[in-house]
Design a protein that fits this description.
This protein is an alpha+beta fold and 418 residues long. Helix content is 51%, strand content 11%. The chain folds into four domains: 145 residues, Beta Polymerase, domain 2; 89 residues, cca-adding enzyme, domain 2 (Orthogonal Bundle), CATH 1.10.3090.10; 125 residues, no CATH class; 45 residues, no CATH class. Strands 3-4-5-2-1-8-9 form a seven-stranded mixed β-sheet. A two-stranded antiparallel ribbon has the order 6-7. The chain has a two-stranded parallel sheet with strand order 10-11. The protein is elongated, with a radius of gyration of 28 Å. Bound molecules: adenosine-5'-triphosphate (ATP) and magnesium ion (MG).
């Protein structure tokens, strides 16, 4: 079957990238798959995307393909659109002079070998020729893939000095792939850890988000602690304390939940009172230091604030419990409660889940039987009592004390006449 003419076939990024390599090679250029996709294919994983590297300069790439767009002009990166996919095509380059420890001062187009040497870790410095089915390895990446090691290409001190963010990338790849960080590379990170504050908070925040949203998050955070990177990452004093709540968190928990678990591990010692945790203050501080969106930061704050209430489940009335279950962030609270009580005990999580299932069956967020309009229609003047009375009547509805509109209206009048 010809994938290009069949408009209904699923987009196939690997086939598209292979086509890009073929067109470039047929025009007389060197072109390979490069970076992360080679690493992932070699270890039998599905790459996120397929990047191509070539000796063809960007103008030539633009001429060879119909739909192209320059993305990293200074770096010679082009996006090629074909077969309903976007393939990133980068011209082989050499970089040097990282004066500010994050962006190269100079970029020069070069060959595959130099392009491999500017990359961060050996497992990320591999090329693959999909037409010849051949790996091109200038940096010993294949051996390190086999040994499961993250090793800086070249002299680690120099390489981290060029871009301190690479220290966090090392941790992220080690955690995600389940690899060890090579001794010399780890020692260099130890020497440079405190310089992470020279990197923009946005870039640090993005790395932390990638670490915490992967199921290997506890390993990543453990490595941050061991390498003394946690302090600079969070702008807090470093601590190598264990992170049991984060470890116990369900794999699918979201970013805000993972951050809340990490806050608890760092700032809420066992035996302390959860109500004493300064949720707002901590969420605000982490928002600034990790450049969290308002949604994530509010989510962290709300999860930390509501958790102690969830943990009093057995004492809560039906309406309180249904209101908790109706919260849009209930899954977050449930994940956090499960991890927290799994570690610190004293709570029957399975019983809570059973109860929740029963309440969900009854309906935890029914349409309110009455509204403010009913109060106005009954001749009351809008005022602060409205909100309170409507909440009282809705509680009665959630608890099954009023079954229909007539009963709700009658209860409403009783409350207004108090
Ligand atoms: P992922 O699967 O997370 O996307 P990746 O290896 O593709 O992993 P990217 O951040 O997409 O990582 O970068 C693509 C490639 O560019 C890397 O494999 C690496 O060769 C190179 N690279 C990226 N960031 C840096 C950096 N800060 N310093 C040196 N090389 C880098
Ligand atoms: Mg990538």
């Amino acid at each position: 079957m010809n994938g290009m003419s069949d408009g209904h076939a699923q987009p196939d990024p690997r086939a598209a990238a292979t086509k890009v390599v073929e067109v470039l090679q047929e025009a007389g250029h060197t072109a390979y798959f490069a970076g992360g996709c080679v690493r992932d294919v070699l270890r039998g994983a599905e790459p996120k995307d397929y990047d191509v590297a070539t000796d063809a300069p960007p103008e030539v790439v633009a001429q060879l393909f119909r739909k192209t767009r320059a993305v990293g002009q200074a770096f010679g990166v082009m996006l090629v659109r074909l077969m309903r996919c976007e393939v990133e095509v980068a011209t082989f380059r050499t970089e040097w002079g990282y004066e500010d420890g994050r962006r190269p001062d100079h970029v020069e187009f070069s060959d595959a070998e130099h392009d491999a040497q500017r990359r961060d870790f050996t497992i990320n410095g591999l090329f693959y020729d999909p037409l010849a089915d051949r790996v091109i390895d200038y940096v010993g990446g294949q051996a390190d893939l086999e040994r499961k090691v993250i090793r800086a290409i070249g002299a680690p001190d120099e390489r981290f000095g060029e871009d301190y963010l690479r220290m966090l990338r090392a941790v992220r790849f080690a955690a995600r792939l389940g690899f060890a960080i090579d001794d010399a590379t780890a020692a260099a990170i130890g020497r440079h850890a405190d310089k992470l504050d020279r990197i923009s908070r946005e870039r640090v925040g993005m790395e932390v988000e990638m670490m915490l949203t992967h199921r290997s998050r506890a390993k990543a955070v453990g490595l941050l602690g061991r390498l003394r990177l946690d302090g600079p990452v969070l702008s807090e004093p470093a601590t190598d304390a264990p992170t049991p709540v984060l470890e116990a968190l369900a794999a699918e928990a979201d970013y805000a939940t993972a951050l809340a678990a990490w806050v608890i591990d760092r700032h809420h010692p066992a035996g302390g009172d959860l109500y004493m945790l300064k949720a707002k203050q901590l969420a605000d501080r982490w928002q600034r230091t990790l450049v969290l969106s308002n949604g994530v930061s509010d989510g962290v704050c709300a999860a930390l604030r509501e958790l102690p209430t969830v943990l009093r489940w057995g004492e809560l009335g039906v309406a309180r419990r249904k209101r908790l279950l109706a919260r849009p962030d209930w899954a977050r609270l449930e994940h956090l409660a499960e991890a927290y009580t799994g570690v610190r005990g004293g709570f029957d999580f399975a019983a809570m889940q059973n109860d929740a299932t029963g309440l969900f069956e009854q309906g935890v967020a029914p349409e309110p039987l009455i509204s403010g309009d009913d109060l106005v229609a009954a001749g009351y003047l809008p005022g602060p009592a409205f909100k309170r009375v409507l909440a009282e009547v809705y509680d009665a509805q959630l608890e099954g004390r009023v079954a229909d509109r007539a009963e709700a209206l009658s209860l409403m009048r009783q409350w207004m006449e108090r």
